[in-house]
Amino acid sequence: MYSKELIKGTLRTVVLRLLDQEGRLYGYQMNKRVEDLSDGRYTLTEGALYPLLHKLVKDGLLTTETEKVNGRARRYYSITEAGRAAATSRREEFRSFLLTMQTLLDLKPEKT
Amino acid sequence: MIILSEHQVARVQAHLARAGLNEQLSTELLDHLCCAIEARMTTGESFDQALSETLKSWPIRQLRDLQKTINFTTKTKPMLYRASAAIALVAGICLLSPFTSVDHSAPLALDHHDHSSDYAADYSRFDPPTASPIAGVDMKAALSSGFGMRKHPLTKRTTLHRGIDLKAKVGTPVQATAPGKVIYAGEDGNYGITVRILHEDGYVTAYCHLSKHVVERGDRVILGQEIAAVGTTGQSLGPHLHYEVLKDDVPVNPLALVD
């Protein structure tokens, strides 16, 4: 599992990208999806996920709707167009950040 | 797939109730915890086992902290920001107001019409973007294609024109039509070089087919600030500015806001 700092700095990018691809997800589902995709190495703690989701809604990057599923109210999050734009630019920024880090830390691709 | 019974859900709810969360958050977390418990039960745990394991990572104190964090990031922070803006505005008006030095009864006269509450509300309300994105140019005078259904000049298909086109020479400065935060600045497919600004109240403005942008993502901009220059990048037939206003993600006619 990665350190809290790394996850904190990338959470917004990950959540926006996830919703950009999937369109609509609920909180637990995001948690599960990220855990599966990262083989359990990237864990969204709920304590960080929900404040972020509520903030993104407030900023107009996500919208929500509540549906009854299995007798429980489930709050789905969908991405807005502004959210998509933010997702793209954050992803691009991270791409160049990776390249910079590769140079800074002198990382060579591992031989297989 | 295991689905918790009403009785089991009630037991999870009882735990959440002890934290005294607001209804919306409590409902959302209830679903989250129930999903987590169901996932554990799918692997063979009993309900009681799954419940106690799941709640172990959700002590009451942590639940309360979560609510505090959410309230702080979504309410307190923007409120502080808005309050300071409102105070600055009031201070500015007081300084410039002709009443302050002349006659103190004059502003009081307004109270007779009971406008005082309206004024107070106005300071905190965000006005939709009404300025022209090109300084000194009237949007109606420079309009080359309006908002609404139209036959696309390149694709020849009838589609919704999501904004308005303004005639302008390449390099003409483009300005922000309201204060806000740049959420996108760069190449964006058919839109060419594009700047998108997020304003308060769910408004977003977009400026497209630019030749360059002079602000970057994350920048805060003020009304009238130069953000870019007119161009003809992306799917465009000639130099012009495509200007969009979105309210809660839905395109609106920028000219309709002016009237």
Describe this structure in words.
Chain B: This is M23 family metallopeptidase. Chain B: GO terms for molecular function: metalloendopeptidase activity. Chain B: The chain crosses the membrane at residues 79-99. Chain B: InterPro entries: Cell_wall_metabolism_enzyme (IPR050570), Dup_hybrid_motif (IPR011055), M23ase_b-sheet_dom (IPR016047). Chain B: Keywords: Membrane, Transmembrane, Transmembrane helix. The complex is a heterodimer of chains A (112) and B (259). The mean pLDDT of chain A is 89. Chain A is α+β, with helices and mostly antiparallel strands. A 3-stranded antiparallel sheet of chain A has the order 1-3-2. In chain A, strand 2 (62-69) and strand 3 form a beta hairpin. Helices cover 60% and strands 17% of the residues of chain A. The longest helix of chain A is centred in the C-terminal third of the chain and has 24 residues, at 81-104. Chain A has a single domain (4-104), classed as Arc Repressor Mutant, subunit A (Orthogonal Bundle). In chain A, helix 1 packs across helix 4. Chain B is of the alpha+beta class. Chain B has 3 domains: 6-58, no CATH class; 65-124; 139-258, Glucose Permease (Domain IIA) (Distorted Sandwich). Chain B has helices at 6-17, 23-42, 47-56, 60-96, 99-102, 105-112, 116-124, 139-142, 254-258, and strands at residues 143-145, 148-151, 158-161, 164-167, 173-175, 180-187, 193-198, 203-213, 220-221, 226-230, 240-247, 250-252. In chain B, strands 1, 4, 5, 6, 7, 8, 9, 10, 11 and 12 form a 10-stranded antiparallel sheet that branches. The radius of gyration of chain B is 26 Å and the shape is elongated. The N and C termini of chain B lie far apart (57 Å). Residues 102-123 of chain B have low confidence and may be disordered. Classes of the chains: A alpha+beta (112), B alpha+beta (259). The interface between A and B is large, with 35 and 38 residues.
